[in-house]
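Re: that chain you flagged

S.,

Sorry for the slow reply, it's been a week of failed gels. I finally had a moment to sit down with the sequence you sent. For the record, here it is as I used it:
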Amino acid sequence: MNGPDRRLVRVARDVFEELDRVLGPERDPDGRPSANDFLTVDLIAIVDRFATRFEELPPLIRGREDYRILVSAGTLVDAFAVVGQLLDDGSIEIMSIDLDVGT
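Prediction finished late last night. Pasting the structure tokens below so you have them in one place:
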């Protein structure tokens, strides 16, 4: 349930497609996580951050406070950059993700 200090967050289909493209359906023998691994660990934390601290994230575009970006180290990937947009209804859509999975 969404409390007064927590926004509803939706994740766009493009994000799931990017996770599948970059990470794939199964763990790599070299230790790269699967898309499902990322969904159940890192994406949960990302959604929580956007839901509870959207206003603290830096704007993606100067003068457009409705677009914010989260750049951070991941638990399962080296780093990620995630863009979210505040919608008219007060919810947030996670629009894109860029992963750094190392070499």
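What I noticed first: The chain has a mean pLDDT of 92.

Talk soon,
D.
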